[in-house]
Each structure stands twice: as structure tokens, then as C-alpha cells.
């Protein structure tokens, strides 16, 4: 199936010489949830701004649902909804007027039934006649989402959607994103909240210093790069790891009451059986074993550090 969004060689270099984006190639499938993960200043917002026509690229091509985003700007932009990081609304307008105006900007005819349902989905319906300045920060964030969805776009960009919002709103937004995907909307979100990508995304792209380091299905990424940890609860606490255990990657945790072993779960040999035998041979007793997977955060940190080390 042809991707709904395709970027080929997209780069951005400012007049000062600063390279904000380095020749990005990326295809987004229709109906997927894609998370662009990276630290502040990595190039996430620059990439979104280019696709949405806010920033002009220095190089490359962008195709949105078959439309060239430069030559056929209006058709391409009409298929995109953008929820920016910053609150940008007329403080003295009512919620419903703000959302109606956004819909009209894209030439859509008035559809009160659709907008009413949208406001209900975002828990804004009771505030539809309130002025923007009367709303809490979380409510204002919901208004931005309503504005972005007002013209029924096929692609929704969420730029750092959880920045500055409480846990309750974050969870509500996650639920809304899944409902939108069920209706066929393609979701692209940028975030540095690892849990957000882990909770929602089908695929994850990692960007750092303007370079797209990798794009993988979330499950495959965690399977390929993820490590596992095994905590061994010791019968008696230890102060140092004995030299006889030097063949394994071990550390002491919980004030010496636990021995932690980090291993590659995909390796042909994990080293666990030989480690447990060695513990018995040297007389170290244990009363419990517990294993856990690494999180997407662990993978992200390791990946960025590895790339930075290679570039040094």
C-alpha cells in the first residue's frame, strides 16, 4: 500500500549554517501511530513544521496522500491537522467559535453535529460557550486538539502532546488517539516522554541532532535491542562482587541484598545456568530470582549514547 506520508532527503540548514535536519527519508503507513522520539532540540519540531508548511525545507521532497507538499500545498495541508506545543488561540473567543473558525479556514462547510461530538470526545462540550481565557491549561490543550481535528484531517500531528499537562489529561489523550486510529486517522507524535511512545506507537523513530537514527516497529526494536535483568535475592548481603564472578555482568543492589545480572535475552547462551552453578560452587546462597525486560527508555538512552560515542 502506498504510504500516506513520504519524505525523501528532507533537510533543513538555516542561514547561520546550523543544520537542523539531515536528509531524512521516512514513509508513514495509512492508519498507523508513529512516534518520533528524541531529546529537546533533536529536530522533531523542525520536521513537523516542514511537513505542515510552517518551515521551508532546504532539500528533499514531501508527499502527503499523493500530493506534493510544495507544489500542491493546499491539497496537502488540508489533509493534515497539527496540535502544536505552544498555545496559540484568541483568548477572547469562545471554544465553539474558535473551532468553527478553524474548520472554515480549510473551506469545510459548517457541521455542528460533527463539532459537538468532537467537543464531547474531548470533554469540552460543557465549556463550548466559555472564552478561551477562562479555561485551565489542560482545557486549552484540549481546544488545540479540537482545532486540529475540526476539518476532519487524515493525518494528525501531535507535537509534544503531554508537555505541561497532568496525568489525567495525558491518559485521556491516549484514549482519543486510539479512537482516532480506529477511525482511520494516521497519528504522528513527537515526544521525549518514553512512556508515551511505549503506550501508543506502532513504530518508533529515534532522532538526535537532526539525524533520524533508526525506524523500527516498537516490538521489534525492544526485542532486538532490549536487554533483560535478573535480580538474585541473596541469603546474606555482600559488600563486593567476588572475583570468581567476573565472567558475568554483575552489580550489587539494595545495599548488597541483591545481585543484578544484565544479559542479552536474544543471545544463544544467556549465561544464567552457569552463573547459578558458580554461585553454588563458591557458597553464595540465594532465596529468590526475578527477571525484567528493559524499557524503551533504556533502549533509547543506549542507542543515543552509542551513536554519540561513535561520532566522537
Automatic annotation (TrEMBL):
Swiss-Prot/TrEMBL keywords: ATP-binding, Nucleotide-binding, Transport
Origin: domain of life: Bacteria
Gene Ontology molecular function: any one: ATP binding
Location of the ABC transporter domain: 5-234
Pfam families: ABC_tran
InterPro entries named among the record's database cross-references: AAA+_ATPase, ABC_transporter-like_ATP-bd, ABC_transporter-like_CS, ABC_transporter_ATP-binding, P-loop_NTPase
Protein name, entry field: ABC-2 type transport system ATP-binding protein
Lineage: Bacteria, Pseudomonadati, Pseudomonadota, Alphaproteobacteria, Sphingomonadales
Amino acid at each position: 500500500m502506498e504510504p500516506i506520508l513520504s519524505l525523501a532527503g528532507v533537510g533543513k540548514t538555516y542561514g547561520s549554517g546550523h543544520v537542523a535536519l539531515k536528509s531524512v527519508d521516512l514513509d508513514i503507513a495509512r492508519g498507523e501511530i508513529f512516534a518520533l522520539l528524541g531529546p529537546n532540540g533533536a529536530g522533531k519540531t523542525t520536521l513537523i513544521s516542514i511537513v505542515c508548511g510552517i518551515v521551508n525545507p532546504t532539500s528533499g521532497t514531501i508527499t502527503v496522500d499523493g500530493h506534493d507538499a510544495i507544489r500542491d500545498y493546499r491539497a496537502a495541508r488540508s489533509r493534515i491537522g497539527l496540535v502544536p506545543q505552544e498555545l496559540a488561540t484568541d483568548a477572547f473567543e469562545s471554544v465553539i467559535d474558535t473551532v468553527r473558525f478553524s474548520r472554515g479556514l480549510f473551506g469545510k462547510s459548517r457541521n455542528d453535529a460533527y463539532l459537538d461530538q468532537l467537543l464531547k470526545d474531548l470533554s469540552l462540550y460543557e465549556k463550548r460557550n466559555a472564552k478561551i481565557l477562562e479555561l485551565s491549561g489542560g482545557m486549552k490543550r484540549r481546544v488545540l486538539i479540537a482545532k486540529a481535528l475540526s476539518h476532519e484531517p487524515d493525518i494528525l500531528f501531535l507535537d509534544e502532546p503531554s508537555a505541561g499537562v497532568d496525568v489525567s489529561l495525558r491518559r485521556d489523550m491516549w484514549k482519543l488517539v486510539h479512537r482516532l486510529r480506529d477511525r482511520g486517522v494516521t497519528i504522528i507524535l513527537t515526544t521525549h516522554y518514553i512512556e508515551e511512545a511505549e503506550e501508543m506507537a506502532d513504530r518508533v523513530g529515534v532522532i538526535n541532532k537532526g539525524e533520524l537514527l533508526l525506524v523500527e516497529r516498537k516490538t521489534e526494536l525492544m526485542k532486538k535491542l532490549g536487554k533483560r535483568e535478573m535480580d538474585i535475592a541473596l541469603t546474606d548481603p555482600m559488600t563486593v562482587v567476588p572475583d570468581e564472578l567476573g565472567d558475568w555482568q554483575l552489580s550489587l543492589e539494595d545495599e548488597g541484598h541483591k545481585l543484578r545480572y544484565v544479559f542479552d535475552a536474544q543471545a544463544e547462551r544467556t549465561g544464567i545456568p552457569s552463573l547459578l552453578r558458580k554461585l553454588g560452587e563458591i557458597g553464595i546462597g540465594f532465596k529468590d530470582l526475578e527477571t525484567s525486560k528493559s524499557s524503551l527508555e533504556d533502549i533509547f538512552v543506549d542507542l543515543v549514547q552509542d551513536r554519540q560515542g561513535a561520532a566522537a
